Amino acid sequence: MFLIIREEMDDKVLFVDDEKAILTSVRRLFLDKQINVQIANNSEEALSIIRNNNISVIVSDNIMPGVRGVDLLERVSRISPDTIRIMMTGYADLSTTIDAINKCGVYKFIVKPWANNELVSIIEEAITRYRVIQSLKETDEPTMRSLAQTIELKDRYTKGHCDRVASYSLIIADHLNLQDDTKKQIKYGCWLHDCGKIGVSEEILNKPGPLTDGEYEIIKKHPEWGAEVAKQANLSQEIVNIILYHHERYDGKGYPLGIKGDEIPQEARIVAIADVFDAITSDRSYQKKREFSEAKNIIASMKRTAFDPHLVDIFLRSVNNTRIEQICLTLKQEGLVEYHDTTVESQGSFWYNNQKF
Ligand SMILES: [Fe+2]
């Protein structure tokens, strides 16, 4: 779950609490982790550390002598906006904490007394979020592509998925005569479309067979999680749209917002087709890949329900086995993906988004 995006980063996590015993126990808790724990006994001390260091994550108590935690985090949001802000508080102080979430963009709150494993995983998630934002801010092609490949490592079945989705999407974009810059943004959006999966456990991503309702609810959070990170990294609107809306459906039955038809930005409608086409023609943990001709029939059967019918027509007209084999071969020659041939044995229903088609 704890992904290394930029190994050279020295992640500093700052804990702020007026109770020394609490600071001692968090320090002990992170002793064997590769995390640089900093501590402060009050808000003034914390602000001085924040001004002089790159702090990835700050975890603050609320009720402290002097400046309260909620006001400290609000100041941190201005001084060091990328620092992920977490509030740790007693149960009695919960309503103030909820205020804090609205007032200063607190990422999560932790109620004392905490469970050690829960605290560690929240901090690791927060560091991952910080690293993804820092990586995305570089916005150069190699960084974005390597981030996409890092995400693919979480799911052993999706090697090369982002590159193939980009190639399929650009087939449609070419036919629509979209501008070069728009096509570039679509390519980046395809690479990053599942970046929110960094927040989903590998057990769920690699689970064979359908997910439970609870697991599916977790999966459904990845578009919003990823889009928030992309927005924070100031990526283009097209990229954010692809990340946020690539699981929306044309009939409004998708997620996360359930918007439909042309309310879904065109770039996301394009990528939705490419994403599903690649899912059908690749082995996944929950089903075997299908032949290309069968995949095309499945895509055609999802016209108007899942996908924009006009874009489906363009895709089905333009895509053929030779074109797909060329895409896979080029990616293989670049050493990026394993080539998968077109001989497939499986038949029957097709599962996507935990639904049968
Ligand atoms: Fe996705």
Can you lay out the helices and strands and say which pair or pack?
Elements: E1 12-16, H1 20-29, E2 36-40, H2 43-52, E3 57-60, H3 69-79, E4 84-90, H4 94-104, E5 108-112, H5 116-138, H6 141-152, H7 161-175, H8 180-192, H9 202-205, H10 213-219, H11 222-232, H12 237-245, H13 266-280, H14 292-301, H15 309-318, H16 321-333, E6 351-352, E7 355-356
Parallel strand pairs: 1-2, 1-3, 3-4, 4-5
Antiparallel strand pairs: 6-7
Q: Please provide the ordered H/E string of secondary-structure elements.
A: EHEHEHEHEHHHHHHHHHHHHEE
Individual helix count: 16
Report the principal-axis shape: elongated
Query: Gyration radius, to the nearest Å?
Result: 22 Å
CATH superfamily of the largest domain: Hypothetical protein af1432
State the name of the first-level CATH class of the largest domain.
Answer: Mainly Alpha
Q: What ligands are attached or bound here?
A: fe (ii) ion
CA-CA gap between termini: 31 Å
CATH architecture of the largest domain: Orthogonal Bundle
Oligomer: single chain
* Neighbour order of strands in the largest sheet: 2-1-3-4-5
* Main sheet: strands, sense, barrel: 5 strands, parallel
Number of strands: 7
Tally of discrete structural domains: 2
CATH domain topology of the largest domain: Hypothetical protein af1432
Mean pLDDT: 83
Strand content: 5-15%
Structural class designation: alpha/beta
